[in-house]
Amino acid sequence: MNHTLILSYVTFIYFASFVFYLFRMILKKEFWGYAASLLAWLGLFAHTLAMMLRWRASYDLGFGHVPITNLYESLVFFAWSIIMLYLAIEWRIKSRILGTFVVPVAFFVMAYASIAPGVDHSIEPLIPALQSNWLTTHVLTCFMGYAAFTVTFALGIMFFLRKAAAHDSSGVRGLIHMLPSEDQIDELIYSCATLGFIFLTLGIVTGSVWAHYAWGTYWSWDPKETWSLITWLAYAMMLHVRLMRGWRGLRMAIMAIIGFACVLFTYLGVNLLPSLHSYLI
Predict the structure, then answer these.
(1) Residues with Cβ within 8 Å of residue 129, at least 6 apart in sequence
(2) Which residue, 19, 118, 185, 204, is most buried by CB atoms nearer than 10 A?
(3) CA pair distance 92, 96, nearest whole angstrom
(4) Which pTM does this prediction carry?
(5) Whole-angstrom Cα distance, residue 260 to residue 253?
(6) Long-range contact list for 190-193, CB < 8 A, 24+ apart?
(7) How far apart, in whole angstroms, are the C-alpha atoms of residue 194 and residue 186?
(8) What's the pLDDT score for residue 207?
(9) What is the three-class DSSP state of 133?
């Protein structure tokens, strides 16, 4: 089966998984949670298979490379990273409530990759600057960091919903019993932000080494590099005020959302600017 067709199915599988996670939260029936998790795992398996098939297809074309070298492939890998990390967290904390907030992000990423104008789905040979063993390490670490920050963002949204539910006298208040406590959400925000910060740090370091081999300099203040640094500083500040100033709860949720806005601009926004990374992700 063609990898593009499989990825189209995966997009709808993630959407169905999100709907079932939502049913589980609203209807409070664990059946929907089991169904949602099963679909998420099915989507991850099919997603992995499709990426492997695309990888194989690049070798069949005579210029094999890991499928993470253009915008389309990076979007596909970003969605894969989000689901993989989410399912690991779901298994670890034994709770499915976070899926309602994380899985739709993966769905929107896949949908954007499929229908957005200007996103080229073709498999092309690597330009000389990308023909390096540092490519895989740099991209993997960056996107694992982005995935962790996506979960952090989802937790920030969850925190706001829980706080709203706690002060609402309508039916929304009933959701409070389905959501973790504010302290539990806060701890998860901190843990995921820390994980993302570690991966992003590794991504910046490996990117700097790669830039030295490709362009002869470790740092050139390119827009992508500059915004990567801004994103790194945003999360460094978030972790610093948590450890040194004791910031928790609402402040951390706000910083999680601001940090994710920086991630999105670093990933997609700077592509609109003249850059040495114009051919990159």
Answers:
(1) 214, 215, 279
(2) 185
(3) 10
(4) 0.91
(5) 11
(6) 190/239, 190/242, 190/252, 192/89, 192/148, 192/149, 192/151, 192/152, 192/155, 193/148, 193/149, 193/152, 193/235, 193/238, 193/239, 193/256, 193/259
(7) 12
(8) 87
(9) coil
Residue 177 CA to residue 165 CA, distance in Å, equals 9
C-alpha distances (whole Å) from 90 to each of 40, 96, 196, 238, 259 are: 11, 6, 17, 24, 23
47 sits in which H/E element: helix 30-60
Whether residue 31 contacts residue 43, with contact meaning beta carbons closer than 8 Å, is answered with no
pLDDT band for position 100 (cuts 50, 70, 90): very high
| C-beta of residue 232 within 8 angstroms of C-beta of residue 208 | no
* pLDDT of the residue at 138: 87
Measured at the CA of 92, the angle between CA 46 and CA 31, to 5 degrees, comes to: 65
Alpha-helical segments (H) within 167-215: 182-215
Q: Is the pLDDT of residue 79 over 80?
A: yes
Who's near 179: CB < 8 A, 6+ residues apart? 97, 158, 161, 162, 165, 185
Domain ranges, ordered by start, for the chain: 1-124, 127-281
* Residue 54: pLDDT over 80: yes
pLDDT tens-digit readout, 229-262 = 999 999 999 999 999 988 898 999 999 999 999 9
- Asked whether the beta carbons of 39 and 17 are under 8 A apart, the reply is yes
